[in-house]
Amino acid sequence: MDSFELTTSSGVTLIRLADEGAEWIARELAVLFGARRPRVLVVTDEHVALHHLEALLVALRTEDFVCARLVIAPGEAQKSFARLREALDTLATGSFARDDVVLAFGGGVVTDLAGFAASVYRRGIEWIAAPTTVLGMVDAAIGGKTGINHEAGKNLIGSFHQPRAVLCATRVLATLPEREVRAGAAEIVKGALLGGGEFWRDIEQAGADATTWSAEILRSFILRGARVKVEIVGRDERESGERALLNLGHTFGHALEQATGYGTVAHGEAVFYGLRAAVWLSRLTGALDPMRADELQAWLARCELPGVATTPDALSDALRADKKTVEGKLRWILLRGPGEPFITAGVPGEAVRDCAEWLCAIAQTGRSARHGPRKRRVLVLHGPNLNLLGEREPEIYGRMSHDDIAHECREAARQHGFEVLIRQTNHEGDYVDLLQWGRRWADGLILNPGAFTHTSVAVRDALAATYLPAIEVHLSEPRQREEFRHVSLISELCRATVSGRGVAGYADAMARLSNFLSETGVGVAR
Ligand SMILES: NC(=O)c1ccc[n+]([C@@H]2O[C@H](COP(=O)([O-])OP(=O)(O)OC[C@H]3O[C@@H](n4cnc5c(N)ncnc54)[C@H](O)[C@@H]3O)[C@@H](O)[C@H]2O)c1
Ligand SMILES: [Zn+2]
Question: Which residue of 9, 149, 364, 425 is 20 to 30 Å from 241, comparing CA positions?
Fold first, then answer.
């Protein structure tokens, strides 16, 4: 048996993990309460009850505990006012006293609900968490956060109420469906990414799919994951600082859960997707070395996940309702590497939007898309007044709109197997910012900076700092126009300039970029 403690303002929570079945929980309870025998309300769900309730109740009776039980339906929908009411009714009509106890025997749904009921009944009575899922043992049952969901958001109604003990009888995991084992491991992976060091190296070696781990390895990882959580919560119980790190992968994870309707995707599955989004954003914002990020992506992608259909808009709406917002700004947990998490509010909205698009694409196909090599990425950047294409001086610039040109670019990108992002801005600073993102995201650039071509030293310098192969494109031929258009500040930094060919110039630029990237092997999937 492994045993350690979490010390918080409300006292000490004992955390114990043993290679035992449900009866062990009753024996531990007897040790915990010594000569005293409080009444016990066992809260569990139908799945857990089917496999393990009888053994637990028999053992509790053997230890002279008087018990009542509440068996709820399984699933996230049970974290509701109706079920809370039922739990409180059971306590009140059963005349449970201030020194009686609630025993939450189940996954995170049961521990969140039962812990919350214990926190408000008679202004708070003791509770014991006996988690029966991987996710519960490594995460949900530890740290004293309890609560239920509201239509406006997950876990919106809740409290901090530390259990007196967390008792993990790991043999009950034998009946847990594979999908739940896999999903629960997301919180272990999160813990290893936060903790880094040997823990991360061992996990990395074991692989992302927990159903391939032996029971012994699983138990050891649960223990280490639980310790990471205990250390962080021990230093910051109320999430005034460091505890927020535990939300790694949970910003997009929660958004995905909310956007698809709670219960569609398991919490842990959403966290796996959320971890991928966190790695993606860490790469894009320059915090995480691109090569390391690609390795992490490939590693995370090896865990089998169900496909989930949602839209970037639905994800953005869900992000807006996030509890992690401070003064209207979302706080993101990103990584400089395993063991190097940090909290930031400085992720540009544009990057979040792009990440939502990417996440929707990979989530939709689930596992299959995640195995192919990643595509080379091309950023097409358009400068001022190109939004007016089709309306503005059509005799010079043609009749195609910006949307039409974007369509042609996507088509050309598809032919060359590129992933493409097309952006237009009228603002010089935005153009510089976009180049700076592109520096981390893209393998190549196609630039039509409009009038900035002739004037902007800032754009030229930002381009120089990307060290990316770039092709300059102009719809008209600047050298046949006014003299002030004869100078390009970016030409010497570009591999080629394509001008005077109208929209066909973009297909040409894509082809040139494709040749160059193939010759040099730049951006080939790792
Ligand atoms: N309070 C926290 O700090 C915290 C942290 C993380 C997650 N959570 C919450 O935890 C919940 C998710 O928890 P979960 O993943 O454990 O889900 P869950 O409680 O819904 O359990 C998953 C499924 O496994 C079944 N099950 C549980 N134990 C079993 C066993 N031993 N054998 C067979 N079947 C079993 C359940 O009936 C359910 O169908 C979410 O609501 C999430 O918000 C809370
Ligand atoms: Zn979680």
Answer: 149
